Amino acid sequence: MSPQLIVVGAGLFGLTVAREAAERHGLHVLVLDRRSHLGGNAWSEADPETGIEVHRYGPHFFHTNNERVWTYLNRFTAFTPFSYRGQSNHRGEIFPLPVNLATINQFYRAAMSPDEARARLREEASMYQGGPATNFEDKAISLIGRPLYEAFFKGYTTKQWQTDLRLLPAETLTRLPIRYTYDNRWFNDKYQAQPADGYAAWMRSMADHPRIEVRLGVDFLSPTAEVNRGVVGRVPVVYTGPVDEYFGDAEGRLSWRTLDFHTEVHPTGDFQGTAIVNYADVEVPWTRIVEYRHVHPERDYPADRTVTVKEFSRFADTPGDEPYYPVNAVEDRARLTRYRARMEAEPLVWFGGRLGTYQYLDMHMAVAAALSLMDNKLSPYLQTQTVGDPVAS
Ligand SMILES: O=c1ccn([C@@H]2O[C@H](COP(=O)(O)OP(=O)(O)O[C@H]3O[C@@H]([C@H](O)CO)[C@H](O)[C@H]3O)[C@@H](O)[C@H]2O)c(=O)[nH]1
């Protein structure tokens, strides 16, 4: 096949673009990924000892309000309903999260009504006397007051980000709802579900098209790769790898958090009774324990064994570290502005996805952004151009 579009990165953004280009425009699309599997960080596989599906790069819970994204993805996988409900271990006691009426009442040893709880948190929050709350700490204190912030957010976020919490953006906090009901679903979205046959099957189904060729283990940025950046300017490229790496760190390294995982198999059918328990206190070195069997209660998993994964967060500063979370501290934002100018000037290259745009994208956001790139930029371009100069395959 002679590629007419090259997609670098086989994550959800890249696969959506590839599929759309193949279907809408009949293009031959070459998808490259330096990893040995599809799906980016959404990849999952069966634990060899128990058969339980484990998300290799940490838990992925699909959720969206976007009808178009939901309808689109249902072409590639069936979904089973799954609403993630959070729990947090604070000083040896389990509290429901995100902060809701049960959390507030348990924390204050009270039986407040929704109105009473609102009034109580308003009173706590009124202690905040600063200016506009634009950073994580100020935002948290101005919303829920210092006691709840210090119990459930300060220690956890310090462990997760290891950055001064006054330098983290407020949006990191506002990913989580605060509710005055007993609802502890993590997300508000209309659709909350898991791919019925797992993430690997979903990703393979997206890539399964006669005009899409996938080559794994190919690093587009390596000059010795069989297809590499030498094609830039001749063939349209959608690049979803790290943007700073693409430009040789010319504007400085963007900071990322990475995760280390500690997997254990236990001789019991249920280790913690739920999919995730967060550990709020800074003295506990891990951020959370994930027990994957609870993500698929409908499956026939072993009754006498279960697998858990402890997560530890740190800066991605060693070669080979996987970038997970853009830290997005003040100096990162300045660097990103300069990278954006370079991205604009790069001929025939469209940047996308979490790594390519340095954005904290959930799965549905990656798909929506890919569809939007097709609608607003790539499709208009492809309709007016003769796509030529196929690269040797
Ligand atoms: O106990 C907690 C939990 C969270 N925070 C802070 O809130 C930030 C946002 O939380 P969240 O988006 O859930 O967490 P994370 O960034 O780790 O996202 C990963 O988790 C899943 C999913 O959200 C379920 O957990 C998602 O798919 C992943 O990207 C968080 O960064 C903390 O700063 C807290 O303080 N205490």
From TrEMBL:
It comes from the Bacteria. It holds the Pfam family NAD_binding_8. Residues 151-360 form the UDP-galactopyranose mutase C-terminal domain. Gene3D superfamilies: NAD(P)-binding Rossmann-like Domain. InterPro entries: UDP-GalPyranose_mutase_C. SUPFAM superfamilies: FAD-linked reductases, C-terminal domain, Nucleotide-binding domain. This is UDP-galactopyranose mutase.
